[in-house]
Amino acid sequence: MLPDASQNIQVKFATDQFSIAYLLISSPLLPPIAFSREMVFINLSIYRFILSSACLYICLLLTSAIVSRRCSDLEVSFGVMDGDHWDTTVEEVDNHLPSSSSSQGASELNDVGEDEWQMVAKKGNQFVINDQPFYVNGFNTYWLMVFAADQSTRAKVTEVFQQASSVGLTVCRTWAFNDGQWRALQKSPGVYDEDVFKLALDFVLSEAKKYKIRLILSLTNNWDAYGGKAQYVKWGKATGLNLTSDDDFFSHPTLRSYYKAHAVLNRVNTLTNITYKDDPTIFAWELMNEPRCTSDPSGDKLQSWITDMAVYVKSMDAKHLVEIGLEGFYGPSAPDRAQFNPNSYATQVGTDFIRNHQVLGVDFASVHIYADSWISQTISDSHIQFIESWMEAHIEDAERYLGMPVVFAEFGVSSKDPGYNSSFRDTMISTVYKTLLNSTKRGGSGAGSLLWQIFPDGTDYMDDGYAIVLSKSPSTSNIISLHSTRVAIFNSMCSWKCKWGCKKKNPLEAFFYHDDL
């Protein structure tokens, strides 16, 4: 016996896993139809088309509701378009996390699959990976290569990556140079210690990838530590060059050629078999740590060097981002911005934040923050005020004049400062993070920050006063982890054009045009 039409429809749609559509059959919105044996399959086809369309419409509504809810969650959690909700507690953010531990949650949110381990790029004034936003919460540990070169200390490299990853840190800035010093990578111009390359820098890159941490690699130093420009001048003098100042590093053609010969970019990693310039583990190349040229306050000498080297590095490696490594001092080209410098001497060191970063080949700006070194060593509230104005000025300049992201690539406070306490350090770190998030929520140029610096246990003898040992600093670790969680949610839940605020739209329109949320 042929079942009646309603039974036929119920069985068919249950088989198709659209049993919800059967409920619509009895809806008063649909006209009644008398079914006969001859017409039933024709009518079934018509109803199936109608009901399939209805199901599709429902799916679109549900999907758009999910998208809208995601952005609404972001509004509540981060104060997007509503400053009253900006200050989120750890407990509130934990509601978004896959586990109850904020540090574990931050780490899980930052988990990146192999297919997603792609080059970091720049799009406008933000970083992107696979066309998705990538805001940075990171750290400095400059000595990784030196520790990796010694079997007795190599495990500390793994340890610091593991601990940093556990609180959601995703970028580490470190040295890719050690010129003519103890455990030197470059023993003389263009001459390298293969064991240091293999056991040290290759290992650092390989370990970083295991913990999904990307590296900003600095290519030389303005200061004497680990060689730097002074070592290049020594090498030049040894060949008979007439050099009178370490600043000749920036202008003498032979010393420029020494710098260009630094063979890191074309190195093939012996552990991963990936050429450095093709490795997504490298976030960016840094031309120099904190370049200064005090012999030429006009800034012309340093500007010429930056112009030459930025283009050269880009010609060698067009895939990776390039940054200079500046501290962020304003120079002669922007006298109206000199008011934001920490002191009058800052205008005399040969750097010029805006002018320097307008050079072809430079992808993003770098700024350092050391109120205790630049203003006064004694801890005071004026340090916090300076940090806020210093950051806001550079974020504004990156937006108005440069059109690029700005990373606050070093910031910290020394435990050796008079009046120091861990509470002040937490306040300082929170100030940096909040200033960045205020930029993030409006799609500004504040692209991230890197703490100076994270140390593992048992490395106190390397501490310059700024070391943060996460296991011994629970309150600081919680602040870092919370910020990592906020950043990770932005990175994972917002599409590129979102600008992190949600415009209210018709649900179907929002679904079809979700990139414009």
UniProtKB/TrEMBL annotation:
<feature type="transmembrane region" description="Helical">
    <location>
        <begin position="49"/>
        <end position="67"/>
    </location>
</feature>
<dbReference type="GO" id="GO:0016985">
    <property type="term" value="F:mannan endo-1,4-beta-mannosidase activity"/>
</dbReference>
<dbReference type="InterPro" id="IPR001547">
    <property type="entry name" value="Glyco_hydro_5"/>
</dbReference>
<keyword id="KW-0964">Secreted</keyword>
<dbReference type="GO" id="GO:0000272">
    <property type="term" value="P:polysaccharide catabolic process"/>
</dbReference>
<keyword id="KW-0378">Hydrolase</keyword>
<keyword id="KW-0812">Transmembrane</keyword>
<comment type="similarity">
    <text>Belongs to the glycosyl hydrolase 5 (cellulase A) family.</text>
</comment>
<keyword id="KW-0326">Glycosidase</keyword>
<dbReference type="Pfam" id="PF26410">
    <property type="entry name" value="GH5_mannosidase"/>
</dbReference>
<dbReference type="GO" id="GO:0005576">
    <property type="term" value="C:extracellular region"/>
</dbReference>
<keyword id="KW-1133">Transmembrane helix</keyword>
<feature type="domain" description="Glycoside hydrolase family 5">
    <location>
        <begin position="118"/>
        <end position="452"/>
    </location>
</feature>
<dbReference type="InterPro" id="IPR045053">
    <property type="entry name" value="MAN-like"/>
</dbReference>
<protein>
    <recommendedName>
        <fullName>mannan endo-1,4-beta-mannosidase</fullName>
        <ecNumber>3.2.1.78</ecNumber>
    </recommendedName>
</protein>
<keyword id="KW-0472">Membrane</keyword>
